[in-house]
Amino acid sequence: MTLFVASLMPKGVEEGREQGKAALRSGADLIEFRVDRLRHPSEVATLVSLFPEHSLVACRVPEDGGEWTGSVEDRRRMLMAGAQAGAAWVDLELWESLVFPPGTKAKILRSYHRLHGAPSQPAELLGRMRRSGADALKVVWMGYDAADYEKIHELYSLVPDLPLTAFLVGKAGRSSRFLSVLEGAPFLYCAPGPGQAVAEGQPDLFEAAQIYRLAEARPGDRFWGLCGSPVEHSLGYRLHNGLGRWIPDAPRYFPFETQEPEALARLLWGIHGESFLGLSVTAPHKRRAFRMAVVRDEWALACGSVNTLKPSEEGFLGFNTDAPAIARSLAAASPHDLSGVTALVVGGGGVARSACVALQSLGCRVAIAARSRKKILDFAKERGVTVLPFEASLVKDLSARVLVHATPVGQEGGAAEGESLFSEADLPHGLLALDLVYRPARTPLLDRVVRAGGKAVSGLRVFLHQAALQAEILLGVRVPPLGGTDALAVLLGPEGRELEREEDR
């Protein structure tokens, strides 16, 4: 069983007391008191005496990722104070020669931290750590890609006789923290709450317990995840990790920040076998996933991109769920058959291609408008799609009845947040408009569509449809069995409630 360790770095006893109490209320099993910022051993002793059974004391120097700038002797006094005050664990770096007096009850966690890449001789390193008289080991180094997990995995086979926690630090190393739980690691280091991490890549306690359900995780559990760069802000983690409402023993869904999707996919399949169910693929890797797949479904072949990879004995099978999700969303929103109507797609990227294929599957005549047309010309020629330079007047000029917006304009947190490529005057009455930006659920474009007398379709609907299709492909179960995407929207929390409010307007 993996214990949740809340990492705290208080500036004083009172702050540490309040943070520690809050961490225990939030589900922490242990509290790592990083005492780097405290000034005197008496502060350490007082703090530990408040939480003796739950305390893990550490004091890290800058070379190991910490903030302690005092002398080696003073640092040792801080650690000794924690041990003598009754701490359950004390973290000692491999280079630390401090020895506790006989009768000290604190267990020793022998650790190794490296702020760069992997050590050159990991087997020799672990041998020295095992001989140090520790009760458990911790090995951490900087990760630059989720595929760097390969060397972390190798460590677990080298230490059969001692509990080992090994993972990558950094944004790209976040997935290795989760996978370490499936390796049987004794500790998962967590932030006490959002925005409170003392090391990059830490999940917070709520995420670990409620979203990823890691308190119940065991070696051999099934998992899948999102592969791309960046991946940290996806709504998919809430949605797919919440499928336990309908699927017994629902697999976990992890983030994989990578620039090497091929290496990552093969690595996970090679290590975890049938426990690894596959990957959702997001930007910028959908074209690479298409080339990687040994078999592709008809949607993937039409779009030239893959957003779902499923492992098999023959290799990875590729699927595209973006296009059918767009088709389903538009068909559900339109009171009329769309066959024969003119549709305009705005954008020149991969999702714009999927929109063209979706619209053609509904029988629409499709035109695409892009500021940079070079990348889309070959695709357009193959699909018989008209390519035009973008002008805001195009919707009316073409007498288009359907508009699909496939650029980042209007995206929350983006460079063009709050903006729209179209004014209200550019949008005809009765227009069916889908904005593939889904944060916010109601974008500035969709607001203008509604004011002009049109029908707005949120990109969040497409997200829900494609996620349901991915789950069906990789999990082999249709979700949800009842309620359609409205039932799935509940799993999104605030965004799902926003979608419901906007569609009721």
CATH class label of the largest domain? Alpha Beta
CATH architecture of the largest domain: Alpha-Beta Barrel
- Helix content, binned percent: 25-40%
Q: What's the overall average pLDDT, rounded? A: 95
Strand order of the largest sheet: 7-6-5-4-3-2-1-8
Characterize the overall form.
Answer: elongated
Rg result = 26 Å
The rounded distance between the terminal residues' Cα atoms is 48 Å
Q: Structural class per helix/strand content?
A: alpha/beta
Q: Any low-confidence stretches, pLDDT <50, length ≥5?
A: none
Structure report:
The protein is of the alpha/beta class and 505 residues long. It has 3 domains: 3-219, Alpha-Beta Barrel (TIM Barrel), CATH 3.20.20; 222-320, Leucine Dehydrogenase, chain A, domain 1 (Rossmann fold, 3-Layer(aba) Sandwich), CATH 3.40.50; 334-463, NAD(P)-binding Rossmann-like Domain (Rossmann fold, 3-Layer(aba) Sandwich), CATH 3.40.50.720. It is 35% helix and 20% strand. The chain contains 19 helices and 20 strands. It has helices at 13-25, 41-50, 72-84, 122-130, 149-156, 174-182, 205-211, 236-241, 261-272, 286-292, 298-303, 322-333, 350-361, 377-383, 394-397, 444-451, 459-475, 484-489, 494-504; strands at 3-8, 30-34, 55-58, 89-93, 107-114, 136-142, 164-169, 187-190, 223-228, 252-257, 276-281, 295-296, 308-312, 315-319, 342-346, 365-370, 386-389, 402-405, 432-435, 455-458. The chain has an 8-stranded parallel beta sheet. A 6-stranded mixed beta sheet has the order 10-9-11-13-14-12, with helices on both faces. Strand 1, helix 1 (13-25) and strand 2 (30-34) form a beta-alpha-beta unit. Helix 1 (13-25) runs parallel beside helix 2, helix 2 packs parallel to helix 3 and helix 12 (322-333) crosses helix 13. The two termini are 48 Å apart.
